[in-house]
Known about the structure:
Distance between the termini: 14 Å
Low-confidence stretches: none
Shape: elongated
Number of strands: 0
Mean pLDDT: 89
Radius of gyration: 15 Å
Order of helices and strands: HHHHH
Number of helices: 5
Strand content: under 5%
Amino acid sequence: MITHYENKLFEMQTLGQYGSLLENLIDSDEFSKLEDDEQRYINNLLRHYKDDIKVPQDFYIRYSKLKINLI
């Protein structure tokens, strides 16, 4: 059950819409009004998104199942 939700979360976090949302937010006027730590958090989200989209989804599914079996 946990594997299913973890895979769904990965799927949602690697959608192109998520990346576009983050990039549009960073390019917006509102972004410059945020505190430094909030800006850093959003930049980290975008960095992780760019790393995550490099991972094939089927690989991540197999990885998450293996990880659960090792616990």
